[in-house]
Amino acid sequence: MQLEATVPVDLKEYPTDYYDEMLITPNRSRRHAKQLAGLLRSFDDQELAARQAAAELAIRQMGITFSVYSEAEGTIDRSWPFDIVPRIIPKKEWDQVEAGLVQRARALNMFIDDIYHKQRVIKEGIFPAEVMEESKNFRAECVGVSPAFGIWAHICGSDLVRDSDGTIYVLEDNLRVPSGVSYMLENRLVTKQVFPELFEHYAPLPVDSYPAQLNEMLASLSPRRTKRPEIVVLTPGIYNSAYFEHAYLAQAMGCELVEGRDLFVDDDDVVNMRTVSGLQRVDVIYRRIDDEFLDPEVFNPDSMLGVPGLLRAWKAGKVGLANAPGAGVADDKVVYAFVPDFIRFYLNEEPILPNVPTYRCMFDDERDYVLDHLDKLVVKPANESGGYGMLMGTSSTQAERARFADLIKNNPRNYIAQPTLGLSTVPTVIGRRVEPRHVDLRPFILSGRSTSVTAGGLTRVALRKGTLVVNSSQGGGSKDTWIVDEEGD
Amino acid sequence: MLSSVAENIYWMCRNIERAESIARVVSVNANLQLDLPRGLSPDWRPLIDVTGTNDQFEERYQEYTERQVVRYLLADTDSPSSVKNCLRNARESCRVVRDSLPREVWQYLTELQLFIDEHLQTGLTKKGRHAFTERIIRTCQMTNGLLASVMTRDIGYQFLRLGRNLERADMTTRFIDMRLKVPQLDRLPDASAVSVLQWVNVLSSMSAYQMYRRKMQAQVLQPQVLWFLLKDDEFPRSFFHCLIAIEESLGLLPDPQPCLLAVRKVFKVIERAKPESLKDDELNTLVDELQSGLIDIHRSMARMYFLPAAGHG
User: Is A261 on the interface with B (CB under 8 A)?
Assistant: First the structure.
């Protein structure tokens, strides 16, 4: 056997140009990351690569995948991309973030409920009527509906980023069918497998209570008072990129995973599922299908994914739907810009978590600023997700900027712009070395009778050097996220 | 239990069972080569006959040579009966019923698929074939063992058992059919010896040889083998035993009467039959009758328990 020379993992050359979650300078680690940094320094490059390989093998064997659809090859399972170095957040800081997220989710739900009822927020001049009227996700069919507890967005995934000065900002709120929570849970299992000695030094807050909390929240939406309401997870099917997660959550909650064709709404507006013993009533549906495809009777008539009559059943109060149809009205990058105002308006509180400064192209002065500074800003369309349709000003070409200038002028309401943030970095295994890579964080907020937040969330990491795109469909990876209590150290 | 879940569990198990049978028949037929008298080589065509997909084979392959038949049975991406496809379909079914099965099933099927993708080329060589098929057979058995040892005996388990036993019963008739269709060997000088070898081959293909010996304590002769494979009530791959299992499982489902009726019809046929004393053409008729009986059982189940527009063939 040929012996290869090994070199110790060296952090002396590690660049800390951005806020790094582990290192203040190459030689000084943040207090909560001391043991992690020490352990990394004790590795040689072979050990490092071997750990990363072990994690990748575990992920393949556990079948943790996401699906990518391509014209040529159909649906392909890709192994979930994962980096072994966890991202650590001190609990003290997290408590603040958590409070901010709870506050935000409350205000967002009050806003949605208001929009579908009295529209005080518009009448009192906080929110322009035309933004609502042109919102792709406003559903006239939902006006006047009163879901349980006045909650519409039961599951919210808010994306957080940390800028160079260390401030954590909310980048966007995903209120339609946010995904990623299953990977948060699986990432922890993988870390335990490949990095067991780290748990000798750290006791990160556990994340595995999420499925039970989700189950409890969903059960509270049941229109029938039964001991064990029938809850189902409604998936568009195996071609959906998040299918893995739909199946995962159904299994973790011990409930059925159904597709549209499994469900049937009868003449009494009761939702049933087709079982081997005949029809069986369903009380609550955790739907992972977008509004447009949910009910061909009301929305897209060509949808093969949905269930005819579902909206009718929900409006009649015969079934609970999470998230409620129409909740997406607040999942809009223009509406986002108003969330701090909503917090002040509905809760009479100051926002705990700041928004990223956002220019709304619908306002003349803000649009002019955006058009003059396209090379410095990130421009986003109001209703896209997955990182599509964006302009990254600092790395754009003249032609791209001209194209976006036209897009903005033709449809100002559809665009916002934000300064380019220096996203914080976390040491990440690249080949046999550790290099900084940019990260964001998606915690999940559950709202029902009460509100709860995951301990941490899903950290996504832009694996390609210098890029900020963290989406798994575009070369992003993920990390386990630890909330650790320093007091206990 | 959801109709779609029942249906997927059923097809998952049928496909696992089929993959195991096909892998085994390839492996056994290759071994036969080593036992045959000089100048005789095993016929590979009957292996395609077993799957009943000769048309598909002939469309894309030139001859029934060892190379081509083995490639078709192990690696073809279009055939409903190739090991690769059966296991891919089993995994796709498993994917949508993961929440009803022990988590390891998905893991085993995923690992096996990775193994197949990685080692297919080696598996197609004479040298690599044994290890390749062995790994497939073993993983299928491991999966069955896992299901048997940790899965709750709920309705889902009955569908799993139904899929497995319908496929097994069907395969048993197909293996018999395969041997009945090679009569020309009778004219060879050592015909009886070759016939013995061929029935040993059938028994081995079904992992039945050892149990046959224990039970029958006799030479491997066609009448005894036929009786054992069709009418023995103890060997789990005999037709009769599979039918008992099917009846038992159906009996535990809601409103099983129409399906049980279809099972009783097949029971009547097999109970009346004396395969050990039938002539070849009568045997052919019997096998055909049994096969169509199984199809009727499947159809009655699909009508009762599966989704109206069934997506599977």
Answer: yes
Contacts of A459 (CB under 8 A, 6+ apart): A87, A426, A439, A440, A441, A478, A479, A480, A481
- Rounding to the nearest 10 degrees, give the CA dihedral for residues B258, B260, B264, B267: 140
* B91: closest chain A residue by CA: A63
CB proximity B309 to A under 8 Å: yes
Is the domain defined by A94-154+205-347 classed in CATH 3.40.50.11290? yes
Q: Tell me: the pLDDT tens digits for B254-286?
A: 999 999 999 999 999 999 999 888 888 898 899
Compute the nearest-CA separation of B296 from chain A (Å). Answer: 19
Number of domains, chain B: 1
pTM of the model: 0.82
Same fold? A94-154+205-347, A359-419: no
pLDDT of amino acid B312: 40
Write the ipTM.
Answer: 0.78
For residue A64, the chain B residue with the least C-alpha distance is B107
Peptide bond into A323 cis (omega under 30): yes
Please report whether residue B312 resides in a domain. no
How many beta-carbon pairs under 8 angstroms link A with B?
Answer: 61
Residue A305 Cα, gap to closest chain B Cα (Å): 14
Q: Is A66 on the interface with B (CB under 8 A)?
A: no
Interchain CB distance below 8 Å, B2 and A261: no
What is the residue-averaged pLDDT of chain A?
Answer: 91
Give the burial class of B119: count Cβ atoms within 10 A of its Cβ; 0-12 exposed, 13-18 middle, 19 or more buried.
middle
Q: What is the pLDDT of residues B238-260, one digit of tens each?
A: 999 999 999 999 999 999 999 99
For residue B159, the enclosing domain spans 3-305
Contact with chain B for residue A97, Cβ under 8 A: no
The Cα A88–Cα B187 span in angstroms is 80
CATH class of the domain whose range is A359-419: alpha beta
